[in-house]
Write a structure and sequence with these properties.
Number of helices: 8
Oligomer: single chain
CATH class: Alpha Beta
CATH superfamily: NAD(P)-binding Rossmann-like Domain
Helix content: 40-55%
Strand order of the largest sheet: 3-2-1-4-5-6-7
Shape: globular
Amino acid sequence: MVEVQQNLFSLDGHVALVTGASSGLGRRAATVLADAGACVIGVARRDDALKSWVAEGAGNRAALPADLSDEAGVAAMCEAASGIFGAPDILVHAAGVNLRQPAEDITPGDWQLTQWLNLGAPFFISQALVPAMKERGWGRIVNFASLQTTRAFPSGIAYGASKGGVGQMTRAMAEAWSGDGINTNAIGPGFFPTELTAAVFADEARAARNAAQTCIGRNGRLEDIDGPLLFLCSDAAVYVTGQILMVDGGFTAK
């Protein structure tokens, strides 16, 4: 008989930091990790939304308002994070931006904002917090990839470039830090109803076409992210690193 480790998915004793925790998949991720036993620091610009998320919990949640579009804001956030519950050993990088601009309309500022928020901030937050994970000999980093990590979408060149970079960054982070017990993976969501995809779901015909493109035959629901995220953040994924787990109903399989 194979002996299965008890509490394989428990996050008791761990501290998680989740960016983009004020709404959408980031908020869902922060809630899932808190419900699994972690002390969770939710990071986002909107203080009121973070406070409402904290109020829904049972004492193991904290709000840390920060503007991640600014390099100095990232550094200040990382410095403050470890003073709340202790140094985070789980990082979930869910914050991001998609300006949905045709290639001809993108300005240098638009490009830089997209690359920094989607690619730069996750790296430098990780770089700042990895030393404490090394001391512990355990860590989990989950980046957010996208369908556009491997597919080209209309008006998606800046976003797609950033998310293609997230895929390679995930592999490079795994190469750099997995030997210290810090596993890095990415989740690639399909179409989920969030603020970032509001324009997509507002077009019923487009939403229906996206659903038909999946193998399962529907678009994502927020709860569909729970299991994959918990797996990648827990001891269940001890031998999984450098991978992109597409949570897309089979969209990219067709």
